[in-house]
Amino acid sequence: MATAFIGRQPIFNRKLRTQAYELLYRSDNSGKAGVEDDRAATASLLLDLLTEVGLEKIVGKHPAWINVPEAMLLEGRLGEVLPTQCALEILETVRPTPEVVEQVGRLKDLGYTIVLDDFAWTEAHKPLVALADVVKLDVLEHDDMALASHMERIHQLAPEAKLLAEKIEQRERFNDLQDMGFDYFQGYFFARPQVVRAERIPANQLAVMELIGRVNDPEVGLPELAEIIARDAALSVKTLRYVNSPAVGLRAQVESVQQALTLLGLDTIRHWVTVLSIAGMDFGDNSPELFLVMLTRARFCELVSKEAGLEKPGTYFTIGLLSAIDVLMNADMEKIIGELPLTDEVKAALIRHEGVGGDILRTAMALEQGLMNEIMFREVDGETLNRCWLEAMEWADEVNRVSEAG
To answer: Among 2, 115, 217, 343, whose Cα sits 20 to 30 Å from the Cα of 63?
Structure first.
């Protein structure tokens, strides 16, 4: 029996801040949605969200965009079961009949955000465009001339509607679309390296990498690690704030770094100091969502390695956490990793995605994008992978809140 995965894809505003998340239903037997029936996919997603998982665990307080097929729209019950935190994406397969337009208008009156998905202009769609709060245009399907034509027509009918460019693969393309006047942006461009790399790592980032190197040096023991943390007052405060947060779940209040090391152990504190060090880096023009991606990968890789009975799950945490450090620093991965005291196994996983660590990392990246046919690690079943992924997303959100509070 195929396992259903719930994923999320960020939707960015013009400042690359996360505006919302589109929720995705995926089955592990396909690289696409894995279902032939759109209604079945939406029903499964809603059932899981409302009964098994909980909307807040997936998107926090962000709006959740959910695909709505025609049959479910015409049933007229969405307003009874969905909170208005959900935005309703009217699929491109929905016919703009009078009944559909009536239902969409009713849902808009109830306070739902109406999104037209994969939009292509036709005269018949005018009534839906007039109701839309957001219209999504596929930038792989249309050239710039066609995009500009669609944008003009949409704004003539719905001047207040926001325009979203989807399926953006490269950062340079995002810049072009921003110049064209799009309001929102969707795609995996934010987690991919830019074409032009920095020739030299800036001094402030180099200092952070040196700290990460010292913290992760296997020759550094507990007393030395406590001293490294204690020398940095801000790092000490952030470490204690994290240790006492719900993300760790300790019952007793921890008062000192030494106590934290004793309770949680050397490897765990190494991880959190590395996390907090990265959180304090200058993200430049990268989206803060990139940090969430790194955290989610780290926790997922660690959880999956434990489920598979692999030794040293902390190694896999490190692989996930550093997997996008090249994007963050806009530098070559091999050059960055060469500065750190990492094993050959970890380096191979990060640079070439090789070995068991590479397979688990590639699985995390596949789940991010809903590419089920690219899942490489099969030592645990699909249900376990899904559980680990959901737990990793929730954990990453909590850790991100702690780091932002600092």
So the answer is: 2
